[in-house]
Design goal:
This protein is an alpha/beta fold.
């Protein structure tokens, strides 16, 4: 990161605690009760003004800052810091009425109308003019206020408007393409434009991949995804640069969304643009919900490069946007929060402070619920505040790196889930999460790292469905193995270069020689079909017709049934002190665990947990502090970790000092 600054705050280190605060939704007399309850809960910081543009600028150039002045002063008087938003997340009605040309357009040519939020084009010059004018007013007015410890650019950039197909986007896309390609002929080559008579004679002929008669050009789609992430990043920079110009001593951030299937923004690329990483995370339904939370927090911590990061939003209990919104069980509020802290968060915040009476999120939980302070939820909020105060000494301590890592690549995520592939059922992040769960089941810590991160500190690197492997990445992976590292990759990896062009000569393309095998044809499985392996495991989704190409490649398991019966399913090639292994089918977490266990054993990587605790708890280290997180719904005896007899409650977290 360019400026690894944490919050602008004097005093001893502490874990910050708070929420989004929206006083503009409430009468003035409610505010005093808010700050009283905040102090009771131990709140130290709030994010303020996020969706307040319409209240701050009532009409063009007519500002009303009085209510915000009073709110900031009230918070400051009660010892509560402010992460002040630039309020540009959603334009006010007067602006969209005057300039409907700032509204996004979907792939089908339909306008995205006001009524929700984020109804603006990332590439609109008109929107940017109005937004930056507001940013300048806010920064000039509040930059020196002692309560303001950070700037919060917009909110969840790209959550609803990452892909815009408007004429503004088309013009900006052409500019982006001119920068990426030296000439129109170079673009034609990269896009394989000889196919289907798509050869361009001028950049002005190019459009975004709008609704077409059939599958749009795949490289055009991939480049549009890259462009769309870059367009939002460029907007982030515009606000950030203005804020730095006016208030160079106030750190700037924006809230990422490293969670679930939110994939439009390449956060590995964005990480250097902010002074500290902030993330929003909400649990998703499913069997791996806790593991997904840990996975996302782990990746966020590695995007932050080991520096403190800010959990900007998560939920105290139920959300409002899932088909069925379940309240959290006892203990889950604290467990979820402390899992983020275990992975490097130095701030724990929620959406939002006071649960709304009106609007689309009125059934989204908050720190101060509809039931008020006389509620079990608020008591849990107060209890968590106390727990965070007791962990003040953890603040600033780095995550302790693991000996194993999972490589996570946004470009492969984008490319592998495009159309016209051997199967449309591939889910990149799910495969990565399956491997992460397998590590947790074995009690082995693993970092989740972006594809560009250094590899030399890891004994084992798993690169699931690493589909896009340009020549430099292939060389880096080969050098890692030749230096004694142990690489594990999977089906549909190494297949294409950065232009989504297939590496010729057989699959897995750029990794074929490193792995010591060759696949002439893919063997995707129909939904419901399976392939049995001779080690007792069952594969789904995918198989490969593998031929071993060298005497140093060992077959660890073969297919027992299906079209690939008798052929290798899992292989390992020794390369000096290192190795390169290949898993050619989807095994799921339960199937991956024994395979991963064998590969880790051969690499000399072992669990730091006693045998009886492996799989039951997650162990995470920050400096000399160990976080032990119960992954089960039952109490777990963790006496074996040292110290006095101790039982970890169901859904509990223990913090053990050295």
């Amino acid at each position: 990161m360019q400026n690894p600054r944490w919050l602008r705050r004097a005093g001893d280190p502490r874990l910050e605690y708070g929420a989004d605060y929206n006083p503009e939704q409430w009468p003035r007399e409610v505010w005093d009760e808010d700050v009283r309850a905040m102090r009771e809960a131990g709140v130290t910081i709030v994010s303020l003004g996020i969706f307040s543009w319409a209240r701050l600028e009532r009409s063009e150039g007519v500002y009303d800052f009085g209510w915000l002045d009073e709110a900031i002063d009230l918070l400051h008087a009660n010892g509560i810091a402010v992460d002040l938003a630039t309020a540009t997340a959603s334009p006010p009605p007067w602006l969209t009425t005057r300039h409907p040309e700032i509204l996004p357009v979907d792939q089908h040519g339909n306008t995205i109308w006001p009524g929700g939020r984020q109804h603006w084009r990332p590439t609109s010059p008109i929107f940017r003019t109005y937004a930056l004018r507001l940013v300048r007013e806010i920064a000039t007015r509040y930059g020196d206020h002692p309560a303001v410890v950070a700037w919060h650019v917009s909110n969840e950039l790209g959550c609803h408007n990452v892909y815009d197909y408007s004429d503004d986007a088309a013009a900006a896309f052409r500019v982006w393409l001119r920068r990426r390609y030296a000439s129109i002929d170079e673009l034609n080559e990269a896009w394989g434009a000889a196919f289907w008579s798509q050869w361009y004679s001028d950049f002005e002929e190019i459009l975004p991949p709008r609704q077409a008669a059939t599958h749009p050009n795949p490289t055009q789609q991939l480049d549009f995804k890259r462009f769309s992430s870059d367009a939002l990043k460029d907007y982030l920079r515009a606000e950030r640069d203005l804020l730095r110009e006016i208030t160079p001593d106030v750190p700037v951030t924006t809230n990422f969304m490293v969670m679930g299937e939110t994939k439009g923004m390449d956060y590995a690329d964005w990480a250097a643009e902010v002074d500290f990483i902030a993330n929003d995370h909400y649990r998703l339904p499913g069997e791996q919900t806790l593991d997904e939370l840990s996975f996302s927090a782990n990746l966020t911590g590695n995007l932050a490069g080991g520096r403190p990061w800010f959990l900007m939003e998560h939920s105290t209990s139920a959300v409002n946007w899932q088909p069925i919104n379940l309240a959290k069980k006892p203990g889950e509020l604290a467990r979820d929060s402390l899992t983020h802290v275990a992975h490097g968060a130095d701030a724990v915040c929620f959406f939002q402070w006071r649960q709304s009476r009106a609007g689309a999120e009125k059934y989204h939980s908050a720190m101060y619920p509809h039931a008020g302070t006389d509620s079990e939820l608020f008591r849990d909020v107060v209890s968590l505040g106390s727990a965070l105060r007791s962990l003040a000494d953890v603040a600033g301590s780095p995550r302790t790196p693991a000996k194993a890592a999972i490589l996570f690549d946004w470009t492969s995520w984008w490319a592998v889930e495009q159309d016209s592939h051997p199967t449309g059922k591939l889910r990149y992040r799910q495969e990565a999460l399956d491997w992460y769960t397998a590590f947790l089941d074995l009690g082995v810590r693993a970092d989740v790292i972006p594809a560009g991160a250094p590899l030399d500190g890891y004994d084992v690197v798993v690169a699931p469905i690493l589909h896009v492997v340009p020549a430099p990445l292939a060389a880096r992976l080969t050098a890692y193995v030749e230096a004694g590292g142990h690489l594990v990759t999977t089906y549909f990896s190494g297949i294409v270069d950065e232009n989504d062009h297939v590496w010729l000569g057989g699959y897995p393309g750029s990794l074929r020689e490193l792995l010591g095998l060759r696949v002439a044809e893919f063997g995707p499985l129909l939904e419901g079909d399976t392939a049995e392996l001779d080690n007792g495991l069952t594969g789904t989704l995918w198989t490969d017709r593998i031929d071993v190409t060298g005497p140093d490649t060992v077959v660890l398991a073969s297919y027992k049934t299906g079209d690939q019966a008798g052929r290798p399913a899992i292989t390992r090639r020794a390369v000096g002190d290192g190795s390169a292994s290949y898993v050619s089918t989807r095994l799921g977490p339960a199937g991956l665990a024994p395979v991963l266990g064998e590969l880790l054993s051969q690499a000399g990587v072992t669990s730091e947990l006693p045998a009886e605790l492996r799989g039951q708890v997650e162990l995470t280290l920050r400096g000399t502090t160990r976080f032990v997180i119960n992954r089960t719904e039952e109490p777990v005896d963790i006496t074996a970790l040292g110290g006095a007899d101790r039982t970890l409650t169901a859904r509990g977290v223990a913090v053990l000092r050295a």
